[in-house]
Amino acid sequence: MTQKSGVIYQGFPSEEELSKIPGVPSKDRIQKGPVACIECVQEIPCNPCEEACPYGAITVGKPITNLPTLDEDKCIGCGTCIAACPGLAIFLLNVSGKKAEVSFPFEYYPLPNKGDEVDCVDREGSTVVKGKVLRIIKSPKYDATAVITVEVPAEYINIVRSIKRLGRSE
Known about the structure:
Layout: H1 7-10, H2 15-19, H3 27-30, E1 35-38, H4 48-52, E2 58-59, E3 69-70, H5 80-84, E4 90-96, E5 99-106, E6 117-121, E7 127-137, E8 146-153, E9 162-163
Antiparallel strand pairs: 1-4, 2-3, 4-5, 5-8, 6-7, 6-9, 7-8
């Protein structure tokens, strides 16, 4: 029996699903500076990312069940779309030499502190590399979703998607 994979079976997108979505920037665009990466693979009625983008770089259109499309030429990497996504499926990628920055939504407490070394995890939640917390943005307009940016080795830019939850202090 073949094990089924993908977001509806495992809770995270499979490599096959990711290869077919219109929201992932090209390798060339990732090299040019910060850019959104939309890993939305489910055709559900949703478009907050489209409404959140002040540059018109994200399009859902009609019907509202379309997967979001990224216009990588319009995206300046502002990150406004990250916390707007109720599915926590948008990330900001930025590579510079041997280091990369990955920004992601984070809805757990406690939050790390700037400068902390943290365990960075992949889509499945498995620890893949240590990273350094560069920024934590907690904007009132983000409705309690923090956006965390970590620095990791550049080869992990397409793998790291969050951090391991931190233990509660007693």
